[in-house]
Fold Glycosyltransferase family 4 protein.
Amino acid sequence: MTEPDLPDVCVVTHPLAAAGENATRSLLDVLSAITSVALVTADLPGDSEIRENRELIELTRKGSGDTVLVAATRFLLNQLRMCRVLADRDEEVVLFYGATSYLLPILVARALGKTVLVEPRGDVPLTLRLNWEQRLPAPLARGLAGAVRALERAGFAAADGVVTYTPSMARQLDLHPEAPDVFPTGARYVRTDEFAVEKPYAERERVVGFLGRLDEEKGIRELATVARTLPDDVTFRFIGDGDLREWLEAELAAEIDAGRVELAGWVDHDDVPAQLNDLSLLVLPSQPTEGLPTTILEALACGTPVYASPVSGVPDVVREGETGFLIDSREPSALREGIESILDRDDRERISENGRALIEREYSFEAAVERYRAILRQYAPPRSSEAEGWRRP
């Protein structure tokens, strides 16, 4: 049920891949619980449930492009399309979710008298730089990424407020968590009824796993070396698909035949809770490009401790020795030693319980709704003086 005192929200995103679609759907779920919400986006997956459940304005189905030139052209065209759409919208608040470098529509929305919030999903300039360095000379890749970062910083400065997932993420983005226009505990949530402890931790085998895209950014090559060198009583399971799937099959053929390594392949999101419930430890040696991977929250909700790189918002959730463990080095030998040390601990069941408790307390749907309610209240239009007992927060 929406609350009439809160402003309506128009969410604006860049072209959405599957992971971005899931995060955006979660955000829309939270916002729609308290106010009216519409989505402006591009290239939404055809089977997305957003199409049926939310008001949608789709700018194009062409995606972001396969080359830098095409991507830059579509980036500019999408901004122009966004400006035209925003000029016709009635929502008082425009929330740029992930699209934090879309400076032109940010400025246009401000000029139209709308409240503008920006919410980064991760370190987009770094992600782009890493991708571009595989196709372009390194100086050019760094220069282009630097330009995107400058646009993003200008967007932060032009907006009325910036929402980040956690205080650590705010600091990584050079934002002060205690600044009045920074909201450092932006709502993320896990469907705690679906992602729950189905298999008691004490009954789980010594299965260590990775869940996500099988590509360079996720440290898959390092994990392959780790999987080959773990003790015989430990099974390493790769859950997901990607460019390195065939490489893994060839590189770890002997270990797969021996049953010490498993390639589960792509799994439907509905089957992810069962996979997480079968793990004793989830390992995510990611590069510092993501804000707060949803997989980490889902694992903790399933009572599965996480061993993850301390990037962006991760240390605020993966708390060393309390809900999980932080990776000091992505070197295979260090990762292997860390995994073996964790599996030898006698307090892993307590850590499993702590992780679930953290999600229920801070990352349930109800907690997420309360956080966004508090944010939007700061931008609600003043009520008439006759509104008894009302005070602007």
Observations:
- Confidence is low (pLDDT under 50) at residues 384-393.
